[in-house]
Amino acid sequence: MTAETSVRDFSRSRAFEALARAGYVSRGLIYVLIGVLAFGLARNHTAEHAPNQQGAIAELLEKPLGKVLVTALAVGLLGYAVWRFVQAAVGRTPEQGSYSTGERVAAVASGLAYTLFLGMAVTTLIGAAKKTPPKSIAADVMTWPAGRLLIVLAGLVFIGVGAYQAKLAISRDFDEYSKTHEMPKNVARTFYIFGRVGHLA
Known about the structure:
two-stranded antiparallel ribbon
């Protein structure tokens, strides 16, 4: 059995499906929290946490059972990152069929981005355990050899991911993992409205 065959078989397993589902839940939770923080910032002009991924994770940590929630979030982010890397490695899904080279590159970039978010969740948990405020990952990386270059590369990855999300919104290709043909027309219409707004945001 080749490595590619093993990866393809894993991508069809129930465990892999569970990871992917957990990843989608975690991804959605992060962006819901970012939206809540952004609304709070707009309303009060001040906010305890910045409306970004790290702020969303810190906000979640302060809720009841915060450590449990952030741990579950980290597992979900791991699942999403693994799912995207496997998509890039296998190069096809049952829903979409074969991936183009550009789509495989985009899957790798997305996997890297969510690996970074996973790192934020883990460092936030470690900071909570040590009772120290979480540090900015970017600030830590800047102290590494070639840290500035790594930050620039990370910035380029995020620009690429952002451009890809905008492209999905404009083309409506974000429905490739959704069975829109099984939805009632009014549900599909609402799905596309929220999908376009969300991807552009």
